[in-house]
Amino acid sequence: MQFYLHFELNDENHAHQLYDEMIETLIGLKDKKTTRVLLSCSSGLTTSMFADNLNSVVEMLGEDYHFDAVVYSNIYEQVENYDLVLIAPQIGYMLKRLQESLPDKLVLQIPTATFASYDAIGAIKFIQSEIENYNKEKKEEQVKKCHCCINVSSLLFYQLIEHKHVFIIAFMINQKLLINKRLLKQVLI
């Protein structure tokens, strides 16, 4: 539960203030998404216990995470429904293979000391830090692509329209082709 509204209507201004706070909370929740994390180990047993522990702690902390666990051989069947994959240290040797085969997912190995002690707070801090780094890298990657597109993809197209030579200057920004419409209209007239 993210917000609970209960009051006696003794003061209209107080009632409006509480109502406004509720609306702000609901608006904030509209875009809020629970981060779904899939844990995995060789049998799914130790990660299932750790997932239960993590779910209890995030519930107490009010964090928006949900943890599930599967045996390693079922990761590929389940991964589509998750934002992040955490593997136990005992199958850490499979990390690189998983990262290569799941390029659109953040795949990490749970730090050994964190997993061995079932340190839920440590795991949550680790996850938050890694998600922040991952998102930062993705953003930098997009900026590089966009910068590259603007510099390299200032494209000059040559087309033949009704036997007229038409030059259209276009730019690639955020993977969208923008055409200089004014130039196009002048040429087509």
The tally of beta strands, per DSSP, is 7
Q: How much strand content do the residues show?
A: 15-25%
Please, what is the average pLDDT? 78
Lateral arrangement of strands in the main beta sheet: 2-1-3-4
Number of helices, where a helix is a run of at least 4 consecutive DSSP H or I residues: 7
Oligomer: single chain
Rg from Cα: 26 Å
Give the distance, in angstroms, between the N- and C-terminal Cα atoms: 62 Å
Largest sheet: 4 strands, parallel
The geometry reads as elongated
Poorly predicted runs = 147-180, 183-189
Query: Helical residue percent?
Result: 40-55%
Strand and helix layout:
Elements: H1 12-30, E1 35-41, H2 45-61, E2 65-71, H3 75-78, E3 84-87, H4 95-101, E4 106-109, H5 112-116, H6 120-152, E5 155-161, E6 164-173, E7 176-179, H7 181-188
Parallel strand pairs: 1-2, 1-3, 3-4
Antiparallel strand pairs: 5-6, 6-7
Helix pairs in contact: 2-6
Question: Can you tag this structure with a few keywords?
Answer:
disordered C terminus; 7 strands; alpha/beta; 49% helix
In short:
It contains seven helices and seven strands. It is of the alpha/beta class and 189 residues long.
Structure description:
With 189 residues, this protein is an alpha/beta fold. The chain contains seven helices and seven strands. The strands form two sheets. It has a four-stranded parallel β-sheet with strand order 2-1-3-4, with helices on both faces. Helix 2 (45-61) packs across helix 6. The longest helix is centred in the C-terminal third of the chain and has 33 residues, at 120-152. The model is unreliable at 147-180 and 183-189 (pLDDT under 50).
